Amino acid sequence: xxxxxxxxxxxxxxxxxxxxxxxxxxxxxxxxxxxxxxxxxxxxxxxxxxxxxxxxxxxxxxxxxxxxxxxxxxxxxxxxxxxxxxxxxxxxxxxxxxxxxxxxxxxxxxxxxxxxxxxxxxxxxxxxxxxxxxxxxxxxxxxxxxxxxxxxxxxxxxxxxxxxxxxxxxxxxxxxxxxxxxxxxxxxxxxxxxxxxxxxxxxxxxxxxxxxxxxxxxxxxxxxxxxxxxxxxxxxxxxxxxxxxxxxxxxxxxxxxxxxxxxxxxxxxxxxxxxxxxxxxxxxxxxxxxxxxxxxxxxxxxxxxxxxxxxxxxxxxxxxxxxxxxxxxxxxxxxxxxxxxxxxxxxxxxxxxxxxxxxxxxxxxxxxxxxxxxxxxxxxxxxxxxxxxxxxxxxxxxxxxxxxxxxxxxxxxxxxxxxxxxxxxxxxxxxxxxxxxxxxxxxxxxxxxxxxxxxxxxxxxxxxxxxxxxxxxxxxxxxxxxxxxxxxxxxxxxxxxxxx
Length: 500
Description:
By secondary structure, the protein is α+β, with helices and mostly antiparallel strands. The protein has helices at residues 20-26, 50-55, 152-157, 237-259, 286-290, 303-314, 331-345; strands spanning 60-62, 68-72, 80-87, 90-91, 106-110, 120-122, 131-139, 142-149, 169-174, 194-198, 201-210, 217-225, 231-236, 294-298, 324-329, 357-360, 368-371, 377-380, 384-390, 420-424, 427-428, 431-432, 434-439, 445-450, 472-485, 491-496. A hairpin with a 3-residue loop joins strand 18 and strand 19 (384-390).
């Protein structure tokens, strides 16, 4: 692949075992090396990955690798959809008027028994047309309530039929009783917890090292930055191969946790088999768990759009001190967020930020200045805190292939890089809302098949036991993990419409 006229060699791609011939074809000569850093084409940056983010939260450790479940308790107060209303022997339609006028009875039919006698319930126009339940009876699986209009004003006019058609939502209000000799009140309401289920996903990776590649040196060296930001060098192909092995299995793990699709149907049947002929049990990735919640497709990203979505996630659900969210996106999405917040901030009082400007040296002017900043955090109305994080997977040009338009709002590049996923990083019932799950019975395993050589005695100078007569060895690794999203309704996705 030719990227530039400055490029003197084309990159080559291959998979599987690396032999001496591979290196000979890649580094044919040893010219003067201007830098010892061999650029990795399309490399992922060492930014915060999903695995890194989840590892910063408490990791859930289970005793076995069996499927696991968790419960999410719903609110005891909820809306119930109306099946139908009946008045004077007929089903109420949207064109009817004066339903229940003058204290006349009418009936409301619901598919579940949610309300009780003496209770006031309200529909959409809750203060205009409150309704009192007089009695109830079962009609098959439905519950029928005999009702009257509540209050002197509504009693005179009744209720318009358009407020009592199928699908209208009703909720409990309270249960008023008489001044003396009252005999009952409303009953308690309950909502059973919802049960969620997931299973572990297993991934494997392996590589083979021929004996004559064990100590094979390369021209120059491979260099990389470790976790502390210190430059480290690798002078042999074996070192680099081991480094790439760990890097690639980490990427595989991140993709499985983020994008993994389950192989189990609702009855637990497995859809896919492995090389052994046995079924592959794979759990739900994070995005598949999020699909049931708040998904928004957009053609233009604005501050009002993100504020409205964040308000929906927080309003009536989270306390004022609990509204902390992470917005994960690509580099281009982070730019859109910056532009939207900057435009909103332009209407505020002038920004006196000394850090945004500093003096620099330039031949263009004796008093040269540098100016620049980026909004990576902001506080939306009602104490909603948002931290923007760039995830390199959103901008990965290998996995993501659909291009975004260059239309004055989007500015080209990958469409996926404009996707934004919002996560509530608070707790649910004292536990993190989003959590990595591992099994103590099935930890991460690294194994070696030792031949004439192995990683611990590559020279083979001392006699030893071997598993295979092949001059070389194999490295295998298997990881078992899952992601638990306790409450999907506390997440949201903003997706460019081109990806719909």
